TrEMBL record:
Organism: Nocardia africana
GO biological process: proteolysis
Keywords linked to the UniProt accession: Hydrolase, Protease, Thiol protease
Cited Pfam families: NLPC_P60 (PF00877)
Annotated family: Belongs to the peptidase C40 family.
UniProt-listed InterPro entries: NLP_P60_dom, Papain-like_cys_pep_sf, PG_Endopeptidase_C40
Gene: ripA_1
PROSITE patterns: NLPC_P60
Gene Ontology MF terms in the entry: cysteine-type peptidase activity
Tree of life domain: Bacteria
Enzyme class: hydrolase
E.C. number(s) listed in UniProt: 3.4.-.-
NlpC/P60 domain location: 224-367
Protein name (record): Peptidoglycan endopeptidase RipA
Amino acid sequence: MASRWWVVAVVSLFALPMLLVVIIGSDDSQTGCVSGALSGALASADSAHVDGYSPQQLQIAQVAVAVGEQHGAAPNVIVAALMAAMQESSLRNLSNDAVEGSSGYAHDGVGGDHDSVGPWQMRASVWGGAGIDQLMNPAYQANWFYNQADKVDGAASMDPGELAQTVEVSDFPDQYGTHRREAEALYMALRGAGSRLPQLASGPARPAGSTDTMGCGGSHSGGGDFGQAIVAAAERWIGLPYVWGGGDTAGPTTGLDGAAEPGFDCSGLTLNAVFAASHGTITLSHTTGSQVADSRGVTVNINEKQPGDLIFFGAGVPHHVAIYVGQLAPRAGAEPVDMVVHAPDFGVPVQLAPLWTTEPMVVRRIGPKPTPSEA
């Protein structure tokens, strides 16, 4: 049967003034593009492209929606699950160097928040009794979220951000709410996944290397675990506002102007990400000029850039800095493009964006000093 394509304008279920264009394809001659991080659960003929999300992020989102629908969760509970995964991992299945064995299972990056792993950042010291093979399975984590939500009185009518915080118990309780519009739009784009996909019960995660964990021709590979950790640390803040002077080692701040809502500027985001990835051993200054000259970095040819590298823009003293994420295909079968995560400018939130090449660039790779045995 020939492929059929539709362009669907999806308006949020909750009547938000937001329009999201979703391209949904169906081709009976092939299965959809599946990430190894999903343990083969999404071997479906349906795929989706949503502007602003990689195929791998959409796979995690599809798991959240499918498991929620199969669980019988109310729409706002599913939205809460999406908001939680957006904030906790930027919809990525993260391993953690502090959790033994987690990197042995398929993952989309490396996190560094205590001993947390996976899309919903479950702590191994608390929930590890099930085994790391379960914790690294996104479907298992999604089931965990909905099971925890079942224990909350009135969950079906709660504000999704409040419910996400009740389940996750974050040190940043207000951050879940920043993802509400995007989560509602994603839910509208992906709803019905529970009936299209097989029952996504818990089960062991797939070993690392068993498939291309990024799938669809996109890749966060390269850059090493430290570079991956920088990317993961920065992507946790996607959706927060640009704030001049905002951001420090602890997280978003109100900046030099005392903004009403905390956020980041470009160098504040990079200093926070590097500090988090290095477990507090590398603290960059809060200006692009000092960061590009930091002695803990080395200059890298633009053609040899890897995830986690800092890219500085502008001739002379740079005026902007972004973190290279890797090459991501905007949809299955499309050509991968270079992507960065950055805090762009006033009125534009922290976001993933294609790397632009319209001005001079310097690539710097920041890294911890080698130990005597490595030197």
